[in-house]
Amino acid sequence: MFRKVYSAGIWGIDGFLVSVEADVHNGLPGFQMTGNLSQETREAQERVRIALKNGNFFMPPKKVTVNLSPADVRKEGSAYDLAIAAAVLGAFGLLDSPLLDDAVLIGELGLNGEVKPVKGVLSLVLAAREGGLGRCFLPKENAKEGSMIEGVEVIPVTHIRELADMLQNPERAKPIGRLPWEELERGFPGSGGVDFSELNGQALLRRATEVAVAGRHNILYIGSAGSGKTMAARRIPTILPPLSREESIEISKIYSICGLLPEDAPLVMARPFRSPHHTITSTALAGGGRIPRPGEVSLASGGVLFLDELPEFSGKAIEILRQPLEDRVVMVSRLHGSCTFPANAMLAAAMNPCPCGFYPDKSRCRCGLGQVKRYIGRISKPILDRIDVTVEAAPATYEEIRGVGENESSEAIRSRVVKARKIQQERFLGRAQEDFSEKGKGQSQIWFNGEMGVREIERYCKLGKEEETYLKEVYDQAKLSARGCHKILKVARTIADLDGKEEIQRIHLSEAVGYRSLEEKYWQVNGD
Description:
The chain is of the alpha/beta class. The chain folds into three domains: about 170 residues, Ribosomal Protein S5, domain 2 (2-Layer Sandwich); about 220 residues, 3-Layer(aba) Sandwich (Rossmann fold); about 110 residues, Helicase, Ruva Protein, domain 3 (Orthogonal Bundle). Helix content is about 40%, strand content about 15%. It has 23 helices and 18 strands. Strands 11-14-17-10-18 form a five-stranded parallel beta sheet, with helices on both faces. A hairpin with a 2-residue loop joins strand 15 and strand 16.
């Protein structure tokens, strides 16, 4: 007999439907699997055979052939076990139910018939919905996670015998309830106990961080150790807008595939903050491997990628960020195909100005000019060009450290950030709708000032006569490149949005120019 059921697999961060076909016929007894399978997937034949035996299913000695289709896509992992077992039972005539015709079965089988949890359930359930299937049988531990996808019934399973019982008695196949989004939000603990009110002094550092977050500009902190660089960066998530349901699901897909979802929550509710150590490899940072998996830049998508002690990272690791920072995606090509990982993260980086950390304070710095030049030179110009805001963290005074005055809280800063971002989204959405109605171009993918290209800068960063004259003076005196000029305009646009102004004024340009001045101060050290 022949029986077909459905399962799902993962390539990159996306799921795809897999047809599991089983055929039982007379011949030399055996169990054969085909369909471009990895070693762990092929081993399912032994797991399934023993699990069915221990589940008290009697199967005559016959030839069993199982095929996983499509055959041109590599099948990885053990999530196909449950579907293979159901297909084999159906082919033997021991299990048949109309529920299987509209269902996807996902789960690993233990030798005792227990159904074990797997990774990437969100992507797998999404694949079922996109394939027009309305029901998923999942391991009990994955059921809450899978239930967050609307339009699909999720039925938890703990044992192969339980699955057989539900299929033979459909009234027992009860789908799990979906947790309301409002309940998940109420259960979210919030900022994790950190707040910008804990950062004393450093008014420039706080302001630069607010500007960078409001326009989603990449930011670089420069200063001596202990000046507050890391402290400011770690509080960036507290001034970011809360996640929407769609953003949470997209981020959770990545974390589910990597097995990093919180144990007590079916979705990631906080914006990611990833801070990899400087010994990280380029593959771990950008993603890849024999079986392509997301890297740190993808795990930070929707949040912040913080690179502390930036010059200590390997040159290869830093340079590999060029394309992700520009395109907001990571393309990984392998023998069996290519996949795309999101890299839609804000970059925050921190560094000392020299190996000892005290340059240009000659009373404390013992580094030679050559040492300073080599240390600063580890950050290449192409990477620096992708950072819109650079700010110096000056050493805090004793009065600032011990000050008892109230600092502005993260909540107050976040309210301004949310307002500025709303202005940007309305601006870009409105223009995209105009383009669609006039030229049929479709909706723009730009939502923040930091993402603007040359065309958007010309459209949204128009200057008055006084402002144009001022920017020309800065351009000539500082010998700016075209990219440097555009960086100033993008940041000035964000500062104007924070100020609630439609037009960019000179004061906005002046502040934006100040966030670029450190490039001349430190990266032109070789000209001293």
